[in-house]
Write a structure and sequence with these properties.
With 141 residues, this protein is mostly helical. It has one domain: NusB-like (N-utilizing Substance Protein B Homolog, Chain A, Orthogonal Bundle), CATH 1.10.940.10. Helix content is 76%, strand content 0%. Helix 3 packs across helix 5. The chain is globular and about 40 Å long. The termini are far apart.
């Protein structure tokens, strides 16, 4: 199952990345990807993309807060979107344990981004995981 989830995260990242570059909603990008795909999409891709898009304003505000000295605009696009996926999985999804979400995020940035990205992503997501209970209280209306 881990392999399927890892592939789902990569496809979700592809959709988030493309949407970010086009300044579009990631759900629209995912619909385009599905329409032009030969194969079936794992439903977890849709869960990740839709969930991240639905919570994007909150996720981005948290990233601005936790990524000390880094604005969203300064972050590499890959890192920004991997962080978005990671925050979604940690705070808004019960599909995987938090440590797995962080491990998967690190695997993505290790293979796709800069040499400094794994430490940066680990630091931000680790701090969010550490503060999860308090953050969820803040986010509860």
């Amino acid at each position: 199952m881990r392999g399927a989830r890892s592939k789902s995260r990569k496809r979700a990242l592809d959709a988030l990345y493309a949407a970010d570059m086009r300044r579009e909603d990631a759900r629209d990008e995912l619909a385009r990807m599905v329409a032009h795909s030969d194969g079936a999409f794992n439903p977890y891709v849709e869960t990740l993309v839709s969930g991240t898009a639905a919570h994007l304003a909150v996720i981005d505000a948290l990233l601005e807060r936790y990524a000390e000295s880094w604005s969203l605009e300064r972050m590499p696009v890959i890192d920004r979107n991997v962080l978005r996926l990671g925050v979604f999985e940690i705070l808004f999804s019960d599909e995987v344990p938090d440590a797995v979400a962080i491990s998967e995020a690190l695997a993505l940035v290790t293979s796709l981004s800069t040499d400094d990205s794994p430490a940066f992503v680990n630091g931000v997501l680790g701090a969010i995981m550490r503060d999860k209970d308090q953050l969820l209280l803040e986010l509860t209306p």
